[in-house]
Amino acid sequence: MKKLRIYMDTSIYNFVIADDVPREREVTLKLIDEIKHGKYEVFISDVVVREINDAPDNIALKLRDVINEVSPTDIPIDEEVETLADKYVAEKIIPEKYRDDALHIAAASIHNMDVIVSWNFKHIVKLKTKKEVVGINSLMGYKEIEIYSPMEVIEND
Q: Model confidence over 102-151: pLDDT tens digits?
């Protein structure tokens, strides 16, 4: 059976160390465990790396350790990704101020991910974004991409 190709935005890595939200942290750790056991093929972009590198040193170090544990495949942020992200912003799917969120979605879309996994309910994991991304992707010739929270992805015991 083909493994799901998942793109995890920065929020996933952040929640691995988020002691203030134990339920979400537990779900995130379960997702990371499933990845380490080969359930998914996981990808990361330069946007995630940049966002993590912008964090305070002690946090960035912990987040880089998580990245090393899951060994994601790098996908580039190239002109095609930038163009699609600009379209999401121009169509007001993602506010200009949060263009990195548009870059996450565009990178995952262009590089044929099956799923974007995120804890970002403000701009990514929300009905409006899901529906409008499907429309823009179809219009621009890209495949439909699913957007889910980790709770919707992990296996229930």
A: 999 999 999 999 999 999 999 999 999 999 999 999 999 999 999 999 99
Q: Could you give the CA distance from residue 24 to residue 31 in angstroms, rounded to a whole number? A: 11
Q: Are 25 and 19 in contact (CB under 8 A)?
A: yes
Domains of the chain: 4-152 (3.40.50.1010)
Q: Which of 44, 38, 43, 45 is nearest to 3 (CA)?
A: 38
- Amino acid 72 reads P
How far is CA 14 from each of CA 22, 25, 62, 119, 150, rounded to the nearest angstrom? 13, 9, 9, 9, 13
pTM of the model: 0.94
